[in-house]
Amino acid sequence: MLRFIGVRLVQMSLLFLVFLTLLFFLLQAQPGDFSRQFLDPNIPAENRDLIAARFGLDQPLWRQYLTYMGNILQGDLGVSFARYPRSVVSVISERLPRTFFLFTFATMLSYYLGFMLGKVLAWRRGGSQEMGITLGGVILYTVFYPWFALVMIWFFAAYLDLVPVNQFLTPIRWREAPFSANTVFASIIWSTLLLTVGLGLSLWASRKPDNLAQQRLIRWGGVGLSFALFLAFWLPSDRRTFATDIAHHAVLPIFTLALVAFAGVMLITRGSMLETLKEDYILTARAKGLAPKTIRDRHAARNALLPVTTSFVLGLAFIIGGGLITETVFSWPGMGELLLVSVQNQDIPVAIGSLAMVGALALIAHIVVDVLYVFLDPRIRYQ
Amino acid sequence: MALEQKPGDLQADPLVALEGAEDLPAIELTDPLWRIRLRLLWRNFKKNWGLFAENKIGLVGLFIIGVFALMAIAHPVLMATVWGGDNTEIYDPVIGYDAVVKEFIVVEVVTDPLSEIELIDARFTNINAQVGDIISQPQQPAPPSSKHLLGTDPLGRDVLSQLMFSTRAAFFLGMVAALVTVFIATTVGSMAAFFRGFVDSFLMRLADLILLMPLIPILIVIGGFWTIELWQLGVIIGVLNGFGGVAIVLRSQALAVSVKPFVDAARVAGGSKWHLIFRHVIPNVLPLSFLYMMFGVTEAISLEAVLSFFGLLNVDMSWGLMISVAQAEGYLLRGLDVWWLLFPAGMAVSVLAAAFFLVGRAMDEVVNPRLRQR
Amino acid sequence: MRSLRKRGGWLALLAALALVAAACSSDDTADTTATTADGGTGNTTTTADGGTTDPDPGGAGGTYQTALTADLTTDNYWSYLDTEASAYNGFVLGQSHPALYTLSIPNFLVVPVLASGEPPETVQEGDVWTATIPLREGMRWSDGEAVDANDFVFTGEVAQEFALGSNWLTYWPEQVTGVEAIDDYTVKITFTEDQPGLSIYQNGVAQSPIMPEHHWASVVEEARGSDDPKAALYAASGLGEPSAGTNVFNRWEQGAFASITANPDYYYSGTKYTTYADLSWTQSNGSDVDETYYGAGGGEVLSEYTDGPFVDEIIYSEYGSQDAAYLAFQEGDVDYVFNPSGIPTGRREELRSIEGLEFAINPSEGFRYMAFNLRKAPMSDPAFRQAFAYVIDKEFVTGSVLGGAALPIYSLVPEANAAWYTDEVNKWGFGLTEGERFQAAVQVLTDAGYTWDVTPEQVVDDDGNVVDNAFIDGEGMRQPDGTAVPEIELLTPGPGLDPLRSTFATWIGQWGERLGVPMDVNPTDFNALQDKTFPPQTAESVLEWDLYMLGWGGGDPSLPCTSHQAFFGADQDSVTGGGFNTPGYNDAEFEALSEEFDLATDLTTARSLCADMEKNISENLPYIVLFSTPITDAWRSTVEFPVTDVLGGLNGYPNGWPGQVLVSE
User: Fold this and answer.
1) Which domain holds residue A118?
2) What is the pLDDT of residues B88-104, one digit of tens each?
């Protein structure tokens, strides 16, 4: 097992270097460079050469490449051209929490929706219900997303006036805020993470005792304690109102994202469930006379979870890449928007930096999936 | 599929080998071989069609595709007949122009909106307008009328003609992307599975590499140094998918096939490597390839629309471009009052992409016996 | 039944989400009301105290909420004028630093700010030229320090020592060789041995922003010692930097919003600026400032406004797209949207139907053009270019096809820049019908010796009458030397980037074909287009294009012909000079005019030379200027702008009026 992980790690590091090289040359191969942003007849033409020299664009390509790779191996992603002289690392670390927040919640919601509906779909296949849900899901899945997102904004924010229009906070409430938005994002992310861990622990611990009453006590005690701690952190905190402001702004993008994404999960779950339902142990369960709901939820769904989990973990990696469209349309300044703007402006260090970030996380997710398989499916063993 | 890295994208569909001829009745061997093959093929088709037709969503998808195909065919016919001749200047989807010109008197306070116009509105059309002038204003975009069944766009072009013209482009793009994907992925998958060793590792690491790249930003980059046209976009999507995710899926399918007894039998009988690949492995991988063809079409259509929306493609006319033009001129958030600018194109993208997706899902049940009802 | 109950699960989840949304939205209203109440009280008090409707400057109250359609990228004024020179940064940062002189609105004349009186004449001292400028006493930075000669000297020295680029280069070019403080309120600028023209002196160094030395001295000192002094200087945050303008930049939540507050100690607060019909200009605050320039003053008032700041705080919300920003505007979240290209047609129609909005439409300084590659036949032939100039019907395309979204133009300087505009340019077929244009073009080509296999001509109907809009396309066109006219490629931005240009290009292609020129209209990616046509170019690479269509944004309205030199000067050739003269224009008459223009030290001479340059271009046609797009602005009626008729629209010059805008409830 350890040896397997070691070999994978070496393989992936090599792959990552090739990936970076490819990115570098792909981005450099674009016509023109960043100094093209400075075409202004009122500014002497030699200014462009100054800018090019400043960003090292006047160097031969191979030297730029060596410098870049040398720096990256030392963990230095360079300096943003468009936000000169901010470092790429600082730009990314500003954007990452915002994207992470939005897409983690959106992904969890869409997986929840997708898994629940997928179960139903497999259970009642062939009916008009299946037809309806599938059609609806698929249409949402293939909908022309930028337009759909704008329609959602128009309907929920402008027409019904339920949620704010765009952005991730209400500037007028934040102008006196004693801290930056990222501090609040960090608090939200950490507290939610701890809450999740707390809930997970209570559920896990509640399985240990044989006694049903004890199980209940641990389960509900743990859940209650987790929530109590969560509230104890937020209720007296001066960040609470700011956190709710952010949450309020996040409702629409999360909901929209979940709507367009759930069909994918739903169809995977359905397929996986259908296969599981053909297994002998389901037949056994039926023969035992268990209630259909128990068979579906306890026996089939749990075993059908494997491919869904895989896709979830792999999907999480791409969360960091964010959604170009979602972030642009909802004015949510995260990684996706950063990527789009930097690629369009030829801000090459930021573009490579953010793409590399996505790539690195995807690689890590691959390893995690491999390891996860061993735990989730006892039949799998790596030599 | 194409819009974002949606969580479901990376999932390789569960695979099980085809069990082709197991329950076929005996065939009389007196006929020539080709006829037997043909009959086998037909029988297989009938059986698969039966499986396919069991699933109503597949039929719905096919029906939608049929409707769009009719639209694509009808456009050149219309351009040659009712929209042709002197009308070409009006109905050409790219350089057609038609707008009713209305005359207004510029006044301070409008009492009759049909003949009068406020100064500020007049100045939007003619910046030098003064009160008392008569100004003529072309009415574009124009709402649907008997002359333009779906109205005109902000540049005075017929929306119906654009919509139908773009259908052809969408099919073309989808087909190119799908064929390239399937050709490459089938070859790569089969070769990797059959040769194993170095070829396998190389091709699969290549696939991993491609999977690391988010498609839209990469296409933006590529669009930066090539002026991408529609067929090129198709080829690029095809190559990226063909060497990427689809190759991995088809490889595992090919892997399952290549350890089947009939491949071993062929090998023992002295079949050459290429014979084995082309006669035994690829034919058994192909049905799954067709499935991915359908998904490929869906992806290509959606991607084109998104790239056009961001103004990154250089095509004469497409559904994405229709929306992009409406957006550039500020008609995107007008709700329902300029519906003809947004809904026909937006729905066309979504519905046709969905139709191919539905067909793909239905084919999944044909290809993958474990998903079948019986 | 069971599945229904299960779905009840996620329905409950959605319901919970909706509840959160509802809870938050009620919160929201409460907060906004509170703010409104505050602002309202502030304003009422002012009106009661003053007893007049004239607002009391110095931050009389209220919050002005605006939207930016792109991100702010820096809070550092040094870098804002160099690598971060974007309009959006200007909206936020642009109003904090004084200069010796600035430009008056709406006529763009050089008028004093920190300097006292008109720019003095330069004088010759030995080999070199110098200007000695007296400064105004009493101007203070917002932290109380005096704005004096040392600040100006400090700025110049840092700009030149650190080799700051872009705009700093135009303020502090190599022609400025030294700057010193004679005393605290007199500066002396030294130039080279050539007498500095307008662009170097009055429109150059005299308008350089002035940085507070007491704030930056330590940063500069530290930067000097670092490996990369410029980067170190630009990396310093400029938040809270003392301001001597209307506003102080205090808070920036990156990616979300920026906020600037009123500077109560602004020197010109309450000063009234008046422009009279004879173009004379007065500034007066009733006490220590009362000056008139460019004439005697008095007579009919053309425009008049009072300096602020009138609002306590201006919030700039950053939006990811125009659609998002305008939706927020429609919803009342913001009072105004900063968008340099103005409101698009469709959006404008929507906004017109909303109550409580006001509109202005203004000509823009920018223009779109088609360039010929003069290094290649047949583009090198004036007759060939003239034929295109005749046959391109700008009035038709802009008025009909583009539906009034664009304005046909005939010169590079917009008509609205009245002081510099000349109407005496060649307008090639202006007012002719489609048929007459066609005839004129064919005539020019025939006279120059072009021949055809099928001669282009108008269709004659059965009665022998010429049909004005039916044509027989020319075919097999040959140049005077007998070689066939090759296929001419017209590069244009794609319809996704700019539907106006690509549509115009399609029509030009049609008209070219009609004359028998084989045209290939090629929508091209913007970067690729620039790469093909702009420097760096080699003698071979430059031959790869024939025609292209692009646009230039606003130039300097107070000295517009400096850009003509950049576009057409022989020394700016994109191959040999690395400049923006992409057509490779090299005309002796133009060169002579350009040289004289550089040396001109008074406006009258400069203007007449500029007009001659315009005429030269319109005759020789290295560019055909096509159209410009007027800029539409809309704002909530609670906001009042000092001037609404101004070249470039409300967010053009000067950075959207943050210091002069008024907000009422």
Assistant:
1) 95-319
2) 778 888 878 888 888 88
Q: Min CA distance, B273 vs chain C (Å)?
A: 46
CA angle B75, B76, B79 (to 5 degrees): 90
**H/E run at residue C306:** strand C301-306
Q: Are residues C118 and C261 in the same domain?
A: yes
d(CA B87, CA B81): 9
What subunits touch chain C, counting only 3 or more CB pairs under 8 A? A, B
Question: What would the two tokens of residue B297 be?
Answer: 């079409």
Question: A301 versus C378: which is more confidently predicted?
Answer: C378
Shared-domain flag, residues C509 and C640 = no
pLDDT higher than 80, residue C44: no
- Which token pair is C472? 């027989």
Say if residue C51 is in the same domain as residue C160.
yes
Confidence at residue C409, expressed as pLDDT on a 0 to 100 scale: 92
Cβ separation B156–C400 shorter than 8 A: yes
CATH number of domain containing C76: 3.90.76.10
Helix (H) or strand (E) holding C188: strand C186-191
pLDDT tier for residue A62 given thresholds of 50, 70 and 90: confident
Separation between Cα atoms, residue B104 and residue B53, nearest integer Å: 60
Residue-level pLDDT at C33: 30
Mutate to test the interface with A, among C63, C234, C329, C333 (most CBs of A within 10 A): C333
Tell the burial category of A56 from Cβ atoms under 10 Å away from its Cβ (0-12, 13-18, 19+).
middle
The pair phi, psi for residue C561, each rounded to 5°, is -75, 0
* Residue of C165, C259, C321 lying closest to A47 (CB–CB): C165
Instruction: Provide the phi-psi class of C59: left if phi over 0, else alpha when psi is between -120 and 50, else beta.
Output: left
pLDDT per residue as tens digits for the range B280-301 = 888 888 888 888 888 889 989 9
Domain enclosing residue C503, as ranges: 367-628
Contact across the interface for C404 and B326, Cβ inside 8 Å: no
Please check the confidence at residue A329 and state whether its pLDDT lies above 60: yes
Residues A342 and A349: their CA atoms lie apart, in Å, by: 9
Please tell me if residue B113 touches chain C, with a CB cutoff of 8 Å: no
CB-based contact, C567 to chain A, within 8 Å: yes
Q: What is the dihedral of CA A308, A309, A312, A313, to 10 degrees?
A: -150
Count of structural domains within chain A: 1
Q: Note whether C530 and C637 are same-domain residues.
A: no
Q: Do C170 and A38 touch (CB under 8 A)?
A: no
Which chains contact A through at least 3 pairs of Cβ atoms less than 8 Å apart?
B, C
pLDDT digits (tens, 9 = 90+) for C187-202: 999 999 889 999 899 9
pLDDT digits (tens, 9 = 90+) for C510-523: 999 999 999 999 88
Structurally, how many domains does chain C consist of? 2
Same domain (yes/no): C85, C209:
yes
Q: Between C547 and A268, whose confidence is greater?
A: C547
What amino acid occupies position C196? P
Nearest Cβ partner of A162 from C14, C25, C79?
Answer: C25
| Residue A345 domain-assigned (yes or no) | no
Q: What is the pLDDT of residues A273-299, one digit of tens each?
A: 888 887 888 888 888 888 888 888 777
Chain B residues in contact with C528 by the CB 8 A cut-off are 224-227
Partner A contacted by B210 (CB < 8 A): no
pLDDT above 70 for C266: yes
> In this predicted structure, what is the pLDDT of residue A2?
78
- Examine the domain organization and report whether C569 and C654 are in the same domain: no
Question: Which domains does chain B possess?
Answer: 9-53 (no CATH), 59-72+157-371 (1.10.3720.10), 101-138 (no CATH)
Q: What is the mean pLDDT of residues C122-134?
A: 93
The highest-confidence range among C61-70, C435-444, C522-531, by mean pLDDT, is C435-444
Residue C321 lies in a domain: no
Determine, yes or no, domain membership for C341. no
